[in-house]
Amino acid sequence: MKKRLVAMIMGCMLAVTAVGCGGSQNAETVESTEVAENTSDAEETVEAEENTEADTEESEDAALEENAEEAEASEEAADSEEASEAGSFTDRSGNEITLPEKAEAIISMAPSTTQVLIDLGLGDKIVACDTYSYASFESELNADIPQFDMMTPDQEQIIALGADIIFTSGMSASGGTDVFEAVRESGACVADIPSSASLADIEKDIEFIGECVGKESEAESIVNLMQTKIDELAEIGKSIPEEEKKTVLFELYTPSAENPMIYTAGKGTYINEMLEVIGAKNVAESEADQWPALSEESAVASNPDVILTADMYTPDVINTILSMKGWENVNAVVNKEVYQLDGDAVNRPNHHVIDAMIEMATSIYPDKYSDEALDDAA
Predict the structure, then answer these.
(1) Per-residue model confidence as pLDDT tens digits over 238-297
(2) Secondary structure E strands in 171-212
(3) Helix, strand or coil for residue 287?
(4) Most buried among 159, 212, 273, 287, using CB within 10 Å?
(5) Lateral strand order in the sheet of 247-251
């Protein structure tokens, strides 16, 4: 989650035909002029023939131009159809790619993408994945498929697998190096999806994946359901008066003696957007970075009403936060409004962020986002 794709002219026969016709007519004109050189009737005849010749040439030129235009239009249509059949378009990073006719063998190098593919019914088409995907979705994937480190993948082995399409993630490029460069150069279809910054981006990612694997309608259905739920939550969020909105500290990791910083989500992230939609205020919204690291002093000074943690590594994380020294007077600690979110749901930018969004809403405003209220909104 951290910072880290003239038209051809007429054939020679038309050109040769046009030249041949013009040459024959010129010979006839010279002959007529020599026979009738001293008679006015002959001059009129020559003039009439010349006019006829001009009309004929104009007609031929018009026909040639019309045929050329038709050929150009036909060529453009053929090019367009060929490009459409080949599936040439750009990935989510703006790279031009050519999709395979069928995606029978897929490599997924991000858990968020793997989960979308599984939900599209394509778990059995995944022939390799990143280690995190396998750890999370082993039961829904083929047994013993190759697993790769998403930051340092074995490119030779990936190429050798001969997959129809390889989905990569912005996470893999967070170090500033294209770790799939050799795979791209091999001619394989590498479809990159950068880290999403908004809910709209996530929806576009899902639609893109659907296009790539021939599951457009299924992907559209997922996006429609996602947007419907966002709209329901937003309707309730809009009803919360400004003075009643709670301030929230979202943390990815809990501070410790070894690492006293608090990693959180700032403005320009889908997590910040989710908080806004449900009617809460992110205490890190004004930070310059998308994923800022706050000092404990800064976090305490923000005095959040609620603390939401996605920390999956600290044992008994809620009580750990409630007992941290120096936090005794923070509103969230005083009122014991510290809640743990499903780290996978909130950290993976796909349609399942809605599950985390509902967790956020019901934790921060349990009275406003009750089951009854959500049913009413629906």
Answers:
(1) 999 999 999 999 999 999 988 899 999 999 999 999 999 999 999 999 999 999 999 999
(2) 190-193
(3) coil
(4) 212
(5) 281-282, 247-251, 306-309, 338-340
